[in-house]
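Input for the complex:
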Amino acid sequence: MSTPLAEIPQGLVEVDLHEATAIVQVDDSLYPLPAIYGAAYVLIDRCFVLLDRPAPGRVRITLASKDPAPDPEALRALVGELANELLACAFRHQLAQDNRVLVETVTMQAMAGAMGPPSLADLADFDFTDEALDDPLGIAQSWEEKHGRTLSRPGAPEGEP
Amino acid sequence: MTEAMPEAMPTPREPTPLGPPTLAPQGLDWAALRPRAGTQTLFRFRPVGDKVLVTNLEGRWLLLTRDDFAAHARGEVPPGSPLHERLATEGFLREGYRVPEAADRLRARRSFLHGGPNLHMFVVTLRCNETCAYCHASRANMDAVHTDMTPETAERAVDLVLQSTSPFVTIEFQGGEPLVNWPVVRHVVEYATAKNRERGKQLELTMVSNFSLLDDERLEWLLAHRVQLCTSIDGPEALHNAQRRLPTGDAHQKTIYWTRRINERYRQLGLDPTLYHVEALCTTTRATLPLWKEVVDTYVGLGCRSLFLRPIDPFGFAERTKRRLEYPRHEYLEYYRRAVDYMLELNAAGVEILERYAAIFLTKILRGQDPNFLDLRSPAGAGIGALAYDHDGSIYTCDEGRMLAAMGDPVFRLGHVDTARYRDIVGHPTVRALAIATNLDAQPDCTSCTYQPYCGTNAAFNYKTQGSIFGRMRDNAVCAVHKGIQDYLFEKLAEGDPKVLETFERWTTVRPREHFIQAQEAP
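Predicted:
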């Protein structure tokens, strides 16, 4: 039988000792989906975790303990850790957006500093057929190639080759 | 809210009161303090004793009285006043803020960024003749010869090391006990020094050993080949022998004998003993905590000039023995304070002994330089500053990553020496993820922490203890230790005892050990 946790507003968390599960519902306007994924993922070594959407704007996280007979304290700790990790992930998600340029710049400098320039062997193995070198939008084409107009001869009237 | 970041805040129409901090200096009414952005550059603050510590983006700092801090937070410091002058000189005011100078300071603090991996840890065997209660390395029994690194694997690893973009590289022999696989240690030393004559790097070689398998012949060979020697000393004899067991029961005696002997040989070779001596570290367990004085006395008695008071890590056997060995980090910090207080007393009396954690932080705080300690930088050094090569040729981002693999989780494995190319290893997605995860500019709590310019986080520790490489700093044991040590250091700086300040200044002096740099040219 599910029972609410006393310290948490009613309807957000329910634990079922018999089934060794805890169910947490969160408002997806407070916690972005990447934060919910990140927080839930942290617990998969201790729980089987399922996400679903019981109602618009709500995400339900079901934690089924891998310990078949957890004590109430253990389930409470799982819920508490999920709640703290949700906040940490949501905050980090926001910081990552705010400081994206700074973090990317530092990471690029660190990676470039460690990797150094490619060797000839690296270049010989480079896949020049990589999709990144395709040009599906025609960005690398000249105006004339893209729009079918040809270059004018010097001194010729406009539009005449 | 306990931290103010005026640059991030618009000038408020209705100033927002600051929330109560955890360590309010007496007499400062935080609730009534109404900060006003506009005159200040970005600053973070933290109460330290009866002062308030403020740090800025480039890591400059001031300890302000509560009234001065309140005036600064309100943007009410009168131009021309001594406080205005102090704030302007240290880059805390927008007016007159010298951007090129700040950029230079920031560049100096992040000088490691372009460096590439300089520390390369070689686990030449997992076999070890000692059994440590907290063994982080998951050692193997002496008959497990299959855990010895082969000469061929060692050569492939050295080839990768010498491809590092760093002009300075250190190969550190670890284990297990590296002396158990002595032939491969010798082979790596000879192969690396010979190969390096083509590469011309500043190559250093270091061995972390319990010394029990040393003999005079091996020692003379290591000295002749300029291999630096490091060890573990867990304090007084009874404690050391209880935690680090040899079948003969004399682990402490053997380590002490050889530490003295090596230091004596350095002196005989004409090397300055203040610079050239065995480096030792102490792993702190619950049993160590009441013995802070005995630990320091043991090191001083041995003529050691430095002591690294490391807390225990949750890797290897320490995971199994934690009920017996672990402790709350506030107890560690109490132990740390007592031990370092005592070391400061000894220094005031003319005994030179430094604490390594303190020296690392103080070098950043007082000199604005980064000593490149890999877990105390942002981003951390995993992969971009260090690599670990396991006995079987597997390559990991860090030694902790290798330890986790030994516990069954190879998440930090980057490849194998037989097949990996250098650029594939350091450009591995895992390395990139760790560089992002350990960048404190995207870490909750760290972004607003006063100690951010001096600090760092350890992704492998976070992963092991909190389930993600990011971790959560508010309940993270490494963060608690880093904050606690910096609180202590800034309290001492605020007290301003001239003898303590003189000692701190000496602890920040970085003197290169040039004797240990291998010859770069062909003889």
